[in-house]
Amino acid sequence: METFVIGLSIASILFMVALGLAIIYGTMNVINLAHGEMVMIGAYTTVLATKHLGFNIYLCLPLAFLVTATFGLIIERTVVRRLYGRLLDTLLATWGITLILQQLIRIHFGLGLFGVEIDGLGSDLQNVPVPAELQQAIQLFGANIPVYRAFVFVTALALGAITWLVMYRTRFGSQLRAVSVARNTAAACGINDKRVNMLAFAYGSGLAGIAGVLVSGFKTVSPDMGTPYVVDAFLVVVAGGVGHLLGTFASAGILGEVQSFVATWANDVYGRTVLFAVVIFILLFKPQGLFVTKSR
């Protein structure tokens, strides 16, 4: 039972990161390698907010969303927008942004913020305190279930529900789906596709920032912490079906549980190895992913 709950928390983080990535890729056909750095920025936003603003992890969730959404908006407006239709160039450009953001964090947190020594910022490795009520454990079917992992799972479900409402119950969601299916036709009908791209990129980045807040309660925050998540998120998106919300949810759940059970049985290396093997197996029999978006 405990292993299953750990798998749910892993799947929840993967789902939040992959959901933002699926929205960006599905809308703009852009492979954003800097998406993992939005997780890292969300985590470092939490570090600063808890240490110097007195925020708890609950208040850091909307704050990190706003900060990382702003970063995503800036990246889209200054870099990605100029490279639409050039997949390889976009890939290299976002990889360059990844390296720049990592080095900026190493410089400013390793030496203190902007070269000025500030209490608690003398190292690029940081920790985030978890509220006392989330440090407890509850008994369920004879197993100790950490409350924090349950909180991560509930947050992921809430974000999934909010994203579904945005995608299928708002004007913006209708425009986003129209642009992802037929960009030129949508633009001819009066939809501002550049605005839709910008907001989709910002929203996807914000979801990754929220994931970064929750990850900071599990692990030490470091400049390169986002890199593994962008790789795993791509696996989730591809295995679930590009642009399919339910597919992303199902794929994240399957891969999260696989990694948890195998890592518990053996170790993390075997866990990631089997995870890749499962994705390959899925794509052999379902090349377009577990779920395919119907189109006319």
Summarize the structure.
This protein has helices at residues 2-28, 35-52, 57-78, 87-110, 147-169, 171-181, 183-188, 193-216, 227-240, 245-265, 268-285; strands spanning 137-140, 143-146. With 296 residues, the chain is mostly helical.
Topology overview:
Elements: H1 2-28, H2 35-52, H3 57-78, H4 87-110, E1 137-140, E2 143-146, H5 147-169, H6 171-181, H7 183-188, H8 193-216, H9 227-240, H10 245-265, H11 268-285
How would you characterize this protein structure?
It is a single chain. The chain is 70% helix and 3% strand. The protein has helices at 2-28, 35-52, 57-78, 87-110, 147-169, 171-181, 183-188, 193-216, 227-240, 245-265, 268-285, and strands at 137-140, 143-146. The model is unreliable at 113-120 (pLDDT under 50).
Dominant shape: globular
* Helical/strand content category: mainly alpha
User: Roughly how much helix do the residues carry, as a percent range?
Assistant: over 70%
Rg (CA only): 19 Å
Number of helices: 11
Q: How do the helices and strands follow one another from N- to C-terminus?
A: HHHHEEHHHHHHH
Main β-sheet description: 2 strands, antiparallel
Number of strands: 2
Average per-residue pLDDT, rounded, comes to 88
The largest beta-sheet arranges its strands as 1-2
Percentage of residues in strands: under 5%
Distance between the termini: 44 Å
Residue windows where pLDDT falls under 50 for at least 5 positions: 113-120
